[in-house]
Amino acid sequence: MTDPIVFAHRGFAGSYPENTVAAVRGAVDHGADAVEIDVQPTADGDVVVFHDRRLDGPADGDGLTDGAGVVWEQSTADVTAARVLGTDECVPLLSELLSAVPAHVTVNIELKNPGSDAVRPGEALVADERATASERWEPLVESVVMVTDDFGHDFLFSSFCEGALAALGANAQNGQLAALVAPNCATAGETVSLRYDVDAVHPPIEQFGGEDGTDWTAVADGIGASVNAWTARDWRDARRALDGGADGVIADYPGLLSYR
């Protein structure tokens, strides 16, 4: 039996300042098979590694950085000067972060946002909406591909948004595709996975092991894809996913498979 793959979620976000150079270096030191990161554009069109819509977080919560504003409305200089979680780590450019990851480690790049609020995560779009959605994502996809072409890693490109997967399918020849399945959106996730014949399906852990859950192993087997569950925050999560047939887990902490 093949050992399960461990993806370091945002570079093991439970242990390190997420989506930073320090995080991916720490993940590699802990033996992660792959690192998972999020990307979006700045106002200048550069690709940065960051998850949230705003540098200062939602109005009712704490921000990840000491910066402010919507990421894609800020200059590259302002975004990359923002310090993450009170550390000396700043928001990195995608190229900077990839330079810190050894070539033998797989990099899962989640396309988080193309610079617009008009995205529809977790939905399977009807035919006449797909072209518009794909066009919205194409500039970011082209920028990401341009950066990754300079690196020798195995890349897995993922998104919750069908528009991103459509644009990736047309433009990203240097990596594989993964459909991220949103909570309570299993049907749409299955539809999109089959529509794009993805290489991997990433459902939430909550969809494993329940009586009403989708059989993701069967879905993946039908298209020759792997199944990686997100996000494991403790050993129980990891065991639930693997017992439910997952090939890998996207984890916030290292060592979660030690208790299987």
Describe the structure.
With 260 residues, the chain is α/β, with parallel strands linked by helices. It has a single domain, classed as Phosphatidylinositol (PI) phosphodiesterase (TIM Barrel, Alpha-Beta Barrel). It contains eight helices and nine strands. The chain has helices at residues 21-29, 76-81, 94-99, 127-148, 162-171, 186-195, 216-223, 235-243; strands at 5-9, 34-41, 47-49, 106-111, 155-159, 175-180, 200-202, 226-232, 248-251. It has an eight-stranded parallel β-barrel, surrounded by six helices. Helix 8 (235-243) links the parallel strand 8 (226-232) and strand 9 (248-251). Helix 4 crosses helix 5. The longest helix has 22 residues, at 127-148. It is globular. The chain starts with a strand and ends in a 9-residue tail after the last strand.
Describe how the helices and strands are arranged.
Blueprint: E1 5-9, H1 21-29, E2 34-41, E3 47-49, H2 76-81, H3 94-99, E4 106-111, H4 127-148, E5 155-159, H5 162-171, E6 175-180, H6 186-195, E7 200-202, H7 216-223, E8 226-232, H8 235-243, E9 248-251
Parallel strand pairs: 1-2, 1-9, 2-4, 4-5, 5-6, 6-7, 7-8, 8-9
Antiparallel strand pairs: 2-3
CATH superfamily: Phosphatidylinositol (PI) phosphodiesterase
**CATH fold annotation:** TIM Barrel
Rg over CA atoms, rounded to whole Å, is 17 Å
Mean pLDDT: 95
The second-level CATH architecture is: Alpha-Beta Barrel
Kindly state the number of beta strands: 9
Largest sheet: 8 strands, parallel, barrel
Structural class: alpha/beta
Name the poorly predicted regions: none
